[in-house]
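ok so i was messing around last nite and threw this chain in just to see what happens. nothing serious, just curious
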Amino acid sequence: MKTFKRIIAVICYVIIFFIILYNLSNILMHKQIEGRWNMTAKVAGFFNEEPNTFDVIFFGSSHMYCSVDPNVFEEKTGLKSYVFATQRQPLWITYHYILEALKTQSPEIIVVETHMVIEEEDYMDEGTNHTAIDPIPFSKNKIEMIKAAVPKGERRYYIFNIMKYHERWEELKETDYAREYETETDPYKGYVRLTTAAIDIDRQDISKVKEAKQLTEKNRYYLNKIIDLAQQEGIFLILLKSPSNATVEEKMYYNAVSEIAKQRGVEYIDYNDEELYKEVGLDIETDFYDQRHLNESGMVKFVSHFGDYLLECYVEK
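result:
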C-alpha cells in the first residue's frame, strides 16, 4: 500500500513539475504579439475560435497570409475562413498545421500555398521553426511536428523552450505574464495587411517555361501526405501558387507541383501564369508590397478572382 502511495505521489509531482515548466516556457517564450507581424497572436487566435466555424482554411507561408483577407473573402464568397500560416512555413510544418486545425474545425475546403517547394534544405532556420512551433499547444502532433522540422540534438529546445529562452528574464514585459493572446481571437483571421507599394518589381518572362525541376524528397513526401490527408478526410484540396512574380527557376518548381497534382487528381492553380495574372488585373506598380508579396490592393484583386474560381470549381458543383 505504501509503495502504491509513493508511486501516486511521484506521478503527481512529475505532473506538477511539467505544468510549472510548461507555464514558465510560455512566459519566457519570445512572442510576436504586436503590430501587423503578430504571428504568435494570429496562430494562437485560431485556437480561440468557435469549433467548426470555418468553411475554408488557408495554409502556407507569408505568400498565403498576405494574399487573403478572410473578411474580404467572406464578403466575396459567403464562406468563412482563416489563414493558418506563418512565415517561410515548409510543407512538413504545413502538414502538421492541417492536422492541428482538424482537431477543432471541419472545413469543406483547404487551400495550401506551395511557394516553399522551392526550399532545398531539409530543415529551416531556428527563427522560422520557433515562430511556427512555439504557439502550438503541447500534444502528440506537436511532438511529431518537431521531429519533422528540427534536427536531432535540437528538439528539446522546442519541446521545452524554456531551455531556449531561459535568459529572457530581464527582458520580460507585462504582456509576457498577461499573455492575453492565449484567450483572444485575431480580428484579421490570420491575414497580414500590407499597404505600401514597391517601386522596383522585376517580372521575368516565364511564359515559355515548361520544364519541371525535381522537388526534394522531403518536399515531395509531405506534399503527397497533404494530398493523402485531404482525401482520407474527404476535404476538397486546392494547391495554390499566389501571385509572386516568380523567377524562371521558381516556375520550374511550381511546374513539378502541377505534375504531382495532375497525377493525384488534385486542383492546382498558379497565379504567376501570364493569363491568370492578366485576368486578375495585377499591376506591378501598385499591387505588390515587395517583389514576392501582394499588398492590400493586390489582395483585393486576387481574392475577387480566386473567390470566383472557388465558387465555380467547388461550391456550385
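not much to say yet. The radius of gyration is 21 Å.
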